[in-house]
Every structure is written in structure tokens, then in C-alpha cells.
Amino acid sequence: MNTYQPMNCDLYDYLEIACLRGYRLDIELKDGARLEARALDTRTSADKEEFLILETADGKQEIRLDQLLAVTPLDANAEFGRVVFTDAVCTF
């Protein structure tokens, strides 16, 4: 995998909200993959890579944050809509 590229702090806030609320997310990855999962937590590794921890139908999974293309909450009354992560720019 490539060298980790940290995420803009403003975008990180959306993931924190998703984890705090336990939102179900439609997750789009930069490689074209897509999955549906519940946001559980985030973590930072010893070498400063950041991950989103998810609960999927197959169990827990971690996704490195710089692999995210977009997330869309699937819960009614979510506090935000689709967030696109592209070169530290957020579009709605």
C-alpha cells in the first residue's frame, strides 16, 4: 500500500460523528469497491496511519482513511449527508 496521506481535520469530524452515533454507512473506496457497514470507532497506528473501524456482516473491518472516496449515512435523520473525500476537499 502507498504511503499514508493524512485526512483534513474538517473531514475527520464527519467520521467521528458517524462513530459516536453508530451510523450505518454506504462506503465508497477509491479502488471502486463499495460496502455497507456500521461505524464503530477510529484508531491511529504507531506509524500514524488512521483507520475507520466498521462492523460489517462478516465482522469487524478496518479501512485506512486515505482509501475513502465517500461516505453516506443510511440512518434517517443523520446529521450530515454524503461526504466526498478528495484531496482534502469536501463536497456535498
UniProtKB/TrEMBL annotation:
Pfam families: ROF. SUPFAM superfamilies: Rof/RNase P subunit-like. This is Protein rof. It comes from Pseudomonas fluorescens. The lineage of its organism: Bacteria, Pseudomonadati, Pseudomonadota, Gammaproteobacteria, Pseudomonadales.
